[in-house]
Design a protein that fits this description.
CATH topology: Rossmann fold
Largest sheet: 9 strands, mixed
Order of helices and strands: EHEEEEEHEHHEHEH
Shape: globular
CATH architecture: 3-Layer(aba) Sandwich
CATH class: Alpha Beta
Low-confidence stretches: none
Oligomer: single chain
Distance between the termini: 35 Å
CATH superfamily: P-loop containing nucleotide triphosphate hydrolases
Number of domains: 1
Length: about 190
């Protein structure tokens, strides 16, 4: 499968179902392009082979538990209690700072838990359409975000899988390699 990133691409949107692959690609992009990226990562909290929850990590500092089996919350997703305040107090300020600082916005990840916060979802959609270049990872099933992605102009949508790994890496790197020099000229 050949993924092309035409000149003028404004956004890369990466759909996934395998968290480990998503985390691997996100870490690779942050390591290579961290100076030009701003936003947040969503990381699995694990105890050996058992997933205990998820953590939000703002690029540039700040972490908070987003969801955990041990978290008592009026908001839940599957077997996890969800702390919407962690999402709103960690991920949103990181995205706002990245937008104000002229960075490529990294949304890692948009999915069903992000949709639980109307405040976060509304602002995320606004930022997606703000004209800032974006790298977005999303989990299938977040209909609001999937609909937004399909309406975004100049956007390449990639399905991340073991079979598409090399092509997805190349496409994301091509996007960032062409976007970063444009940002440095402004």
């Amino acid at each position: 499968m050949k993924i092309t990133v035409p000149p003028g691409t404004a956004n890369i949107v990466i759909g996934f179902s395998d968290c480990a692959l998503k985390e691997r690609l996100s870490a690779k992009l942050c390591a290579a392009y961290g100076r030009w990226l701003g936003g947040f990562r969503t990381l699995e909290l694990r105890d050996g082979r058992v997933r205990k929850g998820f953590e939000i990590a703002a690029l540039g500092g700040g972490r908070a538990v987003l969801a955990s089996r041990e978290l008592v919350s009026p908001v839940a997703f599957n077997k996890y209690g969800v702390d919407l305040g962690a999402l709103e107090a960690t991920a949103l300020p990181a995205l706002e700072a990245a937008a104000a600082g002229g960075r490529v916005l990294l949304f890692d990840e948009l999915g069903p838990m992000a949709l639980l916060s109307a405040k976060f979802s509304a602002r995320a959609v606004e930022l997606l359409f703000s004209g800032r270049p974006c790298v977005v990872f999303y989990r299938r099933g977040a209909k609001t975000f999937e609909d937004a992605f399909s309406r975004m102009r100049d956007t390449v949508i990639i399905e991340l899988s073991r079979e598409s790994w090399a092509e997805a890496v190349t496409a994301a790197q091509t996007f960032l390699d062409t976007t970063v020099p444009l940002m440095e000229n402004h």
